[in-house]
């Protein structure tokens, strides 16, 4: 009986050890978040992180350890260290990185659940606390963080923003997976200016070492892509429902808070969508579903933004509306011409931000809306011509405080009509492969593009796209 009891006790002990081992050992270094989730009390814990604060009280030091794994309302773990056991502690400052090993216990402090009693503390890298820009108890402004791009993700402010971006990306992938879309990676190098605006970055010719002349690497002029849409159409003709989520590049010579030279673009293409209303319904469902998902999954991040005086004023329009007003381009022009500021708006003129803001504020009472059926002269060659032969079946989605958030269209699937447009622009030779899609039994497709950074502007209320991308590239600025 004694031996049986011993065996049973050993089995129970081994199970307990295995359970604790699973809690405290993973293939990745342990994080503070995992400690709060699993609470391996009275176990030896090993952590690496930065110090947010260093406080001395009589014979002990209290260190706020931070590793970026927690959400913003509970962002650190307190480490308690005896000065007798750790004589090097006075050299620690906020911002420095340490490796700490100790025992996890419940804290007596009413505002914190756990603390780590340190047995060993090793300084990894010291920090010049005087010049370190992210100081404890000092206000972190978005402007200051923008000026310190390489350090800003150590701040809770920037972390809240980038957690929202991460969740948005995941929600988009999840949405398309549920709707049986295929994810396609379109080329970043192209010989086509898809949008027709001419604002492309050209790949520089190189100097031949043999002939000492400039040569094109690809034997033709090649550019960084502005859009993957043309290539995505080839995939839509194979799979039916496809999307891409890739970087795009536009050589805008502007310092506007709405523009980046390098940004991320979601592009969607669906075969069989033959009505513009169907496309608008699909777009509305996407933005509503993904916004709802990010709002429900990131309550702490939204709360943090509110606490820092950033209000997502118009997010309800993304969360709760099943439809948005739809007006024709001609109606929008007629309304502009009734105003004092824009009474001389030209025939077939394009809208700028001032026009979009006026329409949004005065005509729509700060309500998001679609403008549809633009003149063909304003839009790219691939958009489907309407029966009037002067307009195309397209949309721009105008959002309060952001302006144009998205654009999309039905694609011209009729071979002769597309060839005529390509001939008019003298680009048939370069786009013969695109024309071939129609010549070899291509299906009608429709799609749209949605800029990730501008979408985040609409969701959060933050008014500068540079706050949503790690190292923003824009006119005269490419640091890091």
TrEMBL record:
<dbReference type="InterPro" id="IPR012340">
    <property type="entry name" value="NA-bd_OB-fold"/>
</dbReference>
<keyword id="KW-0436">Ligase</keyword>
<dbReference type="GO" id="GO:0004816">
    <property type="term" value="F:asparagine-tRNA ligase activity"/>
</dbReference>
<protein>
    <recommendedName>
        <fullName>asparagine--tRNA ligase</fullName>
        <ecNumber>6.1.1.22</ecNumber>
    </recommendedName>
</protein>
<comment type="similarity">
    <text>Belongs to the class-II aminoacyl-tRNA synthetase family.</text>
</comment>
<dbReference type="InterPro" id="IPR004365">
    <property type="entry name" value="NA-bd_OB_tRNA"/>
</dbReference>
<dbReference type="InterPro" id="IPR002312">
    <property type="entry name" value="Asp/Asn-tRNA-synth_IIb"/>
</dbReference>
<dbReference type="GO" id="GO:0006421">
    <property type="term" value="P:asparaginyl-tRNA aminoacylation"/>
</dbReference>
<dbReference type="GO" id="GO:0005739">
    <property type="term" value="C:mitochondrion"/>
</dbReference>
<keyword id="KW-0648">Protein biosynthesis</keyword>
<dbReference type="Pfam" id="PF01336">
    <property type="entry name" value="tRNA_anti-codon"/>
</dbReference>
<keyword id="KW-0547">Nucleotide-binding</keyword>
<dbReference type="InterPro" id="IPR006195">
    <property type="entry name" value="aa-tRNA-synth_II"/>
</dbReference>
<dbReference type="GO" id="GO:0005524">
    <property type="term" value="F:ATP binding"/>
</dbReference>
<dbReference type="GO" id="GO:0003676">
    <property type="term" value="F:nucleic acid binding"/>
</dbReference>
<feature type="domain" description="Aminoacyl-transfer RNA synthetases class-II family profile">
    <location>
        <begin position="162"/>
        <end position="472"/>
    </location>
</feature>
<dbReference type="Pfam" id="PF00152">
    <property type="entry name" value="tRNA-synt_2"/>
</dbReference>
<keyword id="KW-0030">Aminoacyl-tRNA synthetase</keyword>
<dbReference type="InterPro" id="IPR045864">
    <property type="entry name" value="aa-tRNA-synth_II/BPL/LPL"/>
</dbReference>
<dbReference type="InterPro" id="IPR004522">
    <property type="entry name" value="Asn-tRNA-ligase"/>
</dbReference>
<keyword id="KW-0067">ATP-binding</keyword>
<dbReference type="InterPro" id="IPR004364">
    <property type="entry name" value="Aa-tRNA-synt_II"/>
</dbReference>
